């Protein structure tokens, strides 16, 4: 199933690859045979020497020993036999080079081709799923599927399989050679190997559970951190920095971390102990056999069997991770192939269905029942019937959730009704071609989605073959011509991701142009103006009225003033149409429509007419993140000493750990010396001497095993403990340092919440990799290499020089191989980023893509973006193959040269064969151990960068420092606030001037209202008063003292802030209200009093757990109005002298708004109050109303004064009234 997208040639290529890897696998065991034969001939040369007993004779006759040696060597030509073996080695090496290259190259090529095919098929399948499918599959998940899961499949299809086959063949050949050359010894060694395999398996199991426990323990702390950082403005405003419960959750994570470190190292120690035990057993038994049956077992045979079997059984373990990645790939493929195979009842790519030549535009809904597939228990439409005649405008009204938008979605066939039918010109829409149906409709929705391209391209998505004239006509019809012609690139201006560079009204008009350019017969307007401010709204509304002429139009609106001119108004209630008629008829009827209109009218107390409800404001914070080019964070290079200093307090742990590593470093050189001594034993002739010596050496092997176990355990415990303590300290310090920064720092998108939480999670834990374990590794390596080189030079300096020259080659090869083991299945991430961007943008805005029937356009773009990474991957395949094969073949060539030179040295009597083995094994073993330990080492570069980032953060002291004690704390604060000639622009967008000389003041007990268009600096002034930012010039005074001279924490404790979208924390209601004053313990009595004043006490008492009810993450368990009132109670509990209300009611529906407004009016009594509002009705009774335009006060006075003046305020009020 995994390979179902492979073509025939690809299957053939993969089979060839498997054959090559099988041959490659057999190479190493075959080399063992050659090695054994070679050892035999070396031993023979040694035996010659002992046997003739020439040395004593030579001594008597005064011949020089070297001469004597030469006399003997002549009888046995060691050089010739060595040359033969050297050729064998080289031959095997070339074979490995060839087959290794082929196996990897073929697999990477086929995997790349298949992966690309899967990516395309999967994306195509997603694009053509029905909407119901998107309701149940979260969008973020789809993007990860497209990137991570398909990369996982790629891993499984790639070189992992052939490497597994290679290891498996190595295992088979090893065992077979073992049985052929000496079955008794083979059985003994095989009896021990389950111990090795079993211990490894058990440990990995324990490790996995510990890791997951450590992660979940940290996840708790991470959640706390995230909650605080998301709500950073709230935290800062209420001085809640000290209250975050981050540290308490870190202790568990630390304890699991220590356990994990100990476990890892104990398991390493045990493995080594078992390994050395096996050595001891094999050599002891091998000597016994060679004494008992010399005709069957020579030392060469013993070595051949020992190595072939050991290599065989170890390679099973090495091959296993590759199987795991194949299993993972199958898991990932399961869900992806499932999606590709899902039947699609509503498929826009299908050719089926009628495509009538013309559309009149008669629409009828007949007795429709419907519930969303993702929420089966909520009935949306229950027998809804509605008729829309062609060319007429029908408006749907009703409370939210009564099925208005659903109706439009059924017409577009995003869903099919459970019962009943929707017809267009008398035909059931299910019989029509889906694509044709959608092409004949233009839709403008509440939040228009634009794609990250130019304005012209965005409009062209409405109709591909639109000419420039068509676009211009659509733009004029949509009232967008003026603002577009003012832009520097006009229609070719990029709109930014999701249209972020444009304002709401501009986006909305472009969306209208996009709907009009296809000249649809049917126009669907879903709340098209609700998200706009008064000025933009009237422009967009005019555009819509123009667009409706001569088309069948269905309009949904919350603001009833926008639909008075509709031909038919249909009132919805509980999923059916309960009344329909014109505005006049329905007003006489006094049904649903009447009550909705009256509710909206009542809000306009002193003026007859209608006001605008709905969300009028664009959240202030989103805007600031848009600007500024990405700067890369500069990380200073941190010296190792400074990082060690972080761990100063744990020095006893570090010292013990380092000593343990020193001893551990000596283990491998000792093993090598024993090894060569054992081989030397075989040149003895006396069987008794042979026995005694091997017994002694075998026991020494065991001793080394025990030492190795203890050093590993000590290292693990000491470094683990010190590392985890360090991690915990770094995390809590970093968290404190983050909370200390000023708001301007959080605005910078390099410090987005996600970035910061990841920093806390990963950077701190990376740092521990630099301190303890790093020291241990360094001492271990130095010790091992030092001992090895010294010993080697003492025994035979000529050979040592040659070997040292080869060492870089060997370590290089080893390193390349370790990297290859980690999966060559490439992650060509930067190139795939482009396709990721396209797929994410498409999937996130799938409704828009589908409504515009532009699936194929985006699919084409996606295919195009895959082209480049695909080509580069094809080019890389041969390179991977060659590097892999090279790393595998190098050791063969090195062995050939070393032993050939060794034989020359023996032949010319510069050394003995035992020394050749000693030098060879001591250096090879040490190099191996260094390679092993460095592959386990945490990535040093990453850790160093992480340490740099954290130290950077800790050293950063912001201008507005909440931890500083400086500044005055006046005892009697009344609450006179004054802004004097304030200039300001946000640090992330220094070129956009927000305030340009703001002068406004408010005396104690007065209410000051700030009004004006979006982005004129209303909220900014409140943020300056809270000292989230400092003004660029000018001053903000509180009680005639410059706020810069006051103590920051004290100043904030005098202000109570209720913002537009109140953020609550995931704890009980009482705790949320208590958060209002973090300087003391707030009693339950005060909490209840604040709740009473905020008009929510009764609501809380009706909850099952009353004040201990948890509010859920970000307060999700409560409605908007309830959250808003808790936020008011929270602000009141600190008894602030100044109350700041930033759009506190704009996001609420009419009903909740009344309640909250009442609470606010009560809260304002006797306090200085600054209010920001878009809905002018809410602030008519303010003492001073200041109209802000372009960052300055345009006019100020009471409501009646300003109305009399007939200036800016008058115009704003009228704009809302004329609605």
From TrEMBL:
Spell out the subcellular localization from the entry. Cell membrane
Major location (coarse) = membrane
SMART domains in the record, alphabetically? AAA
Q: Which reaction does it catalyse?
A: daunorubicin(in) + ATP + H2O = daunorubicin(out) + ADP + phosphate + H(+)
Q: What keywords appear on the UniProt entry?
A: ATP-binding, Cell membrane, Differentiation, Glycoprotein, Membrane, Nucleotide-binding, Repeat, Translocase, Transmembrane, Transmembrane helix, Transport
Coiled-coil regions listed in the entry? none
UniProt EC number:
7.6.2.2
Note the superkingdom of the native organism: Eukaryota
**Would I find Phosphoprotein among this entry's keywords?**
no
What are its GO cellular component terms?
A: mitochondrial inner membrane; plasma membrane
* Biological process, per Gene Ontology: cell differentiation; oligopeptide export from mitochondrion
* InterPro entries associated with the record: AAA+_ATPase (IPR003593), ABC1_TM_dom (IPR011527), ABC1_TM_sf (IPR036640), ABC_transporter-like_ATP-bd (IPR003439), ABC_transporter-like_CS (IPR017871), P-loop_NTPase (IPR027417), Type_1_exporter (IPR039421)
Gene Ontology MF terms in the entry = ABC-type oligopeptide transporter activity; ABC-type xenobiotic transporter activity; ATP binding; ATP hydrolysis activity
What's its membrane topology?
A: Multi-pass membrane protein
- Extract the Gene3D superfamilies matched here: ABC transporter type 1, transmembrane domain, P-loop containing nucleotide triphosphate hydrolases
ABC transporter domain: from which residue to which, for each copy?
Answer: 363-599, 977-1215
Listed transmembrane segments: 12-36, 85-109, 266-286, 298-316, 651-675, 695-720, 775-795, 801-818
Tell me the ranges covered by the ABC transmembrane type-1 domain, including all copies. Answer: 15-328, 655-942
Q: Which family does it belong to?
A: Belongs to the ABC transporter superfamily. ABCB family. Multidrug resistance exporter (TC 3.A.1.201) subfamily.
Per the entry, what this protein does is: Energy-dependent efflux transporter responsible for decreased drug accumulation in multidrug-resistant cells. Specifically present in limbal stem cells, where it plays a key role in corneal development and repair.
Q: What is this protein called?
A: ATP-binding cassette sub-family B member 5
Origin organism of this chain? Electrophorus electricus (Electric eel)
């Amino acid at each position: 199933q995994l390979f179902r997208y492979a073509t025939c040639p690809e299957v053939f290529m993969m089979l060839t690859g498997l054959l090559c890897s099988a041959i490659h696998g057999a190479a190493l065991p075959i080399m063992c045979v050659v090695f054994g034969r070679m050892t035999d001939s070396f031993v023979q040369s040694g035996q010659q020497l002992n046997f003739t007993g020439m040395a004593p004779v030579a001594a008597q006759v005064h011949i020089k020993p070297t001469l004597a040696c030469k006399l003997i060597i002549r009888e046995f030509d060691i050089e010739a036999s060595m040359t033969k073996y050297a050729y064998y080695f080289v031959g095997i090496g070339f074979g490995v080079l060839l087959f290794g290259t082929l196996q990897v190259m073929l697999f990477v090529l086929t995997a790349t081709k298949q992966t690309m095919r899967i990516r395309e098929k999967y994306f195509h399948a997603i694009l053509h799923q029905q909407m119901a499918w998107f309701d149940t599959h979260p969008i973020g998940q789809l993007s990860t599927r497209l990137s991570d899961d398909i990369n996982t499949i790629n891993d499984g299809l790639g070189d992992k399989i052939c490497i597994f086959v290679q290891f498996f063949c190595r295992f088979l050949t090893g065992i077979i050679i073992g049985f052929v050359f000496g079955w008794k010894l083979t059985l003994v060694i095989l009896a021990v190997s389950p111990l090795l395999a079993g211990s490894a398996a058990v440990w990995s199991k324990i490790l996995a559970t510990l890791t997951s426990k450590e992660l979940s323990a940290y996840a708790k702390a991470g959640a706390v951190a995230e909650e605080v950082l998301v709500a950073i403005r709230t935290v800062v405003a209420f001085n809640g920095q000290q209250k975050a419960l981050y540290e308490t959750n870190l202790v568990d994570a630390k304890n699991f971390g220590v356990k994990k470190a100990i476990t890892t190292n104990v398991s390493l120690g045990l493995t080594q102990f078992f390994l050395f035990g096996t050595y001891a057993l094999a050599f002891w038994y091998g000597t016994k056999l060679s004494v008992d049956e010399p005709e069957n077992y020579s030392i060469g045979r013993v070595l051949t069997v020992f190595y072939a079997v050991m290599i065989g059984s170890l390679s099973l373990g090495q091959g296993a991770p590759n199987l795991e990645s194949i299993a993972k790939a199958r898991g990932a493929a399961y869900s992806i192939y499932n999606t590709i195979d899902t039947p699609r009842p509503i498929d826009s790519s299908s050719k089926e269905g009628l495509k009538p030549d013309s559309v009149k535009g008669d629409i009828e809904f007949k007795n429709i029942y419907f519930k969303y597939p993702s929420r089966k228990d909520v009935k949306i439409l229950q027998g809804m019937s509605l008729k829309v005649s062609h060319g007429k405008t029908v408006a749907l009204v009703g409370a939210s959730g009564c099925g208005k938008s659903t109706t439009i979605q059924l017409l577009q066939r995003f869903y099919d009704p459970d019962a009943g039918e929707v017809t267009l010109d008398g035909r059931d829409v299910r019989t029509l071609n889906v694509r044709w149906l959608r092409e004949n409709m233009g839709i403008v929705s509440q939040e228009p989605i634009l794609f990250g391209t130019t304005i012209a391209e965005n409009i062209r998505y409405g109709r591909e073959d639109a000419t420039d004239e068509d676009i211009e006509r659509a733009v004029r019809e949509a009232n967008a011509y003026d603002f577009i012609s003012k832009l520097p690139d006009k229609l070719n201006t990029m709109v930014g991701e999701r249209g972020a560079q444009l304002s709401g009204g501009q986006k909305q008009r472009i969306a209208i142009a996009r709907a009009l350019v296809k000249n649809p017969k049917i126009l669907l307007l879903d709340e098209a103006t609700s998200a706009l401010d008064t000025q933009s709204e009237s422009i967009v509304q005019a555009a819509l009225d123009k667009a409706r002429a001569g088309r069948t139009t269905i309009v949904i609106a919350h603001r009833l003033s926008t639909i008075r001119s509709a031909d038919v108004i249909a009132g919805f209630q509980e999923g059916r149409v309960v009344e329909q008629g014109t505005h006049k008829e329905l007003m006489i009827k006094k049904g649903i429509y009447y009550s909705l209109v009256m509710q909206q009218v009542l809000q306009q107390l002193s003026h007859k007419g209608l006001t605008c409800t709905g969300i009028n404001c664009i959240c202030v914070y989103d805007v600031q993140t848009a600007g500024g080019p990405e700067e890369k964070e500069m990380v200073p290079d941190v010296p190792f000493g400074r990082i060690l200093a972080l761990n100063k307090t744990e020095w006893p742990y570090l010292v013990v750990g380092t000593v343990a590593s020193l001893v551990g470093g000596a283990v491998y050189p000792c093993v090598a010396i024993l090894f060569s001594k054992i081989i030397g034993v075989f040149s003895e002739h006396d069987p008794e001497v042979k026995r005694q010596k091997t017994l002694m050496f075998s026991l020494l092997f065991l001793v080394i095993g025990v030492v190795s176990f203890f050093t590993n355990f000590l290292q693990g415990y000491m470094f683990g403990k010190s590392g985890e303590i360090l991690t915990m300290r770094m995390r809590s310090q970093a968290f404190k340092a983050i909370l200390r920064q000023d708001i301007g720092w959080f605005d910078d998108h390099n410090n987005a919440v996600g970035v910061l939480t990841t920093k806390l999670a990963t950077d701190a834990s990376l740092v521990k990799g630099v301190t303890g374990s790093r020291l241990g590794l360094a001492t271990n390596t130095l010790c091992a290499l030092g001992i090895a080189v010294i010993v080697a030079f003492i025994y035979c300096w000529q050979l040592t020089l040659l070997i040292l020259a080869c060492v870089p080659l060997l370590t290089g090869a080893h390193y390349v191989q370790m990297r290859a083991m980690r999966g060559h299945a490439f992650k060509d991430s930067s190139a795939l980023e482009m396709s990721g961007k396209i797929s994410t943008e498409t999937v996130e805005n799938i409704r828009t893509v589908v409504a515009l029937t532009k699936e194929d356009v985006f699919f084409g773009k996606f295919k195009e973006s895959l082209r480049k990474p695909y080509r580069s991957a094809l080019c890389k395949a041969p390179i991977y193959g060659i590097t892999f094969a090279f790393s595998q073949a190098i050791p063969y060539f090195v062995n050939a040269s070393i032993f050939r030179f060794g034989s020359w040295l023996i032949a010319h009597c510069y050394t003995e064969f035992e020394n050749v083995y000693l030098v060879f094994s001591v250096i090879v073993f040490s190099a191996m151990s260094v390679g092993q330990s460095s592959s386990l080492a945490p990535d040093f570069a990453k850790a160093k960068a992480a340490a740099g980032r954290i130290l950077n953060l800790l050293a950063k002291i912001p201008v507005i420092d909440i931890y500083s004690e400086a500044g005055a704390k006046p005892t009697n604060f009344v609450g006179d606030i004054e802004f004097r000639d304030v200039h300001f622009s946000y640090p992330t967008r220094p070129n956009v001037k927000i305030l340009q000389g703001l002068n406004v003041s408010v005396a104690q007990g007065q209410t000051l209202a700030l009004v004006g268009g979006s982005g004129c600096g209303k909220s900014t002034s409140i943020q300056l008063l809270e000292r989230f930012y400092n003004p660029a010039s000018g001053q903000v005074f509180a009680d005639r003292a410059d706020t810069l001279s006051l103590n920051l924490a004290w100043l904030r404790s005098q202000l109570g802030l209720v913002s537009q979208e109140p953020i609550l924390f995931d704890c009980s209601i009482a705790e949320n209200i208590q958060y209002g004053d973090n300087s003391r313990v707030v009693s339950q009595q005060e909490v209840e009093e604040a709740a009473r004043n905020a008009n929510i006490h009764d609501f809380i008492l009706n909850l099952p757990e009353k004040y201990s009810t948890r509010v859920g993450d970000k307060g999700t368990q409560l409605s908007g109005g309830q959250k808003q009132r808790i936020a008011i109670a929270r602000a009141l509990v600190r008894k602030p002298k100044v109350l700041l209300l930033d759009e506190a009611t704009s996001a609420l529906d009419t009903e909740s708004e009344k309640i909250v407004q009442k609470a606010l009016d009560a809260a304002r009594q006797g306090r200085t109050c600054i209010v920001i509002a878009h809905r002018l009705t809410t602030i008519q009774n303010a003492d001073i109303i200041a109209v802000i335009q372009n960052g300055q006060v345009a006019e100020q006075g009471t409501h009646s004064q300003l109305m009399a003046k007939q200036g800016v305020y008058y115009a704003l009020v009228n704009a809302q009234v004329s609605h």
